[in-house]
Amino acid sequence: AQLERSLVIIKPDGYRRGLTGEVLRRIEAKGYTIAKLQVTEATRDQLDAHYAEHEGKPFYEPLVEFMSSGPIVVAVIEGNDCIKGFRSLAGATNPTEAAPGSIRGDLGRDWGLKVQQNIVHGSDSTESAEREIAIWF
Ligand code: DAT
Ligand code: MG
């Protein structure tokens, strides 16, 4: 096991729906520590940096627009293997395909849903985590 940090974002849909407490509860129940936490509104520069790997893809502009549509909660979590662990807690990118028991599987809505409205973001590697933490904190 390796002690890691991951950058977690509760996206505007999660915040708007009042799921902040539920997501943080699942993180703490898993045994991860919430090291940093803030409610903020993303700037275009932060989103361009955060989602640089997706720039130019067809879903990029709708994604950035959605991420700018309201407050978000940004956290740094810590724990053993928490990068993979949080992505497992989050479930598959598309909530329609996310397994029951996961955040997206349990809480993602299938009615009129867009894939970007999937409640949470979690870093996908140690390099991404450090890069993303520097963007938001
Ligand atoms: P993840 O958030 O699971 O790491 P990702 O990094 O591939 O997924 O994509 C970033 C976000 O972009 C994702 O949370 C939702 C949105 N997205 C990804 N693929 C999409 C698609 N095919 N259509 C619409 N939105 C998409
Ligand atoms: Mg990703």
Question: Any descriptors?
Answer:
single chain; 137 residues; alpha+beta; Alpha-Beta Plaits; 20% strand; globular; binds 2'-deoxyadenosine-5'-diphosphate; binds magnesium ion; kinase; transferase; nucleotide metabolism; nucleotide-binding; ATP binding
Folded structure, characterized:
It catalyses: a 2'-deoxyribonucleoside 5'-diphosphate + ATP = a 2'-deoxyribonucleoside 5'-triphosphate + ADP; a ribonucleoside 5'-diphosphate + ATP = a ribonucleoside 5'-triphosphate + ADP. The protein starts with a strand and ends with a helix. The protein has one domain: Nucleoside diphosphate kinase-like domain (Alpha-Beta Plaits). It contains seven helices and four strands. The chain is globular, with a radius of gyration of 14 Å. By secondary structure, the chain is of the alpha+beta class. Helix content is 40%, strand content 20%. The protein binds 2'-deoxyadenosine-5'-diphosphate and magnesium ion. 2'-deoxyadenosine-5'-diphosphate (DAT) is lined by residues 54, 59, 63, 93, 115-116, 118, 121, 124.
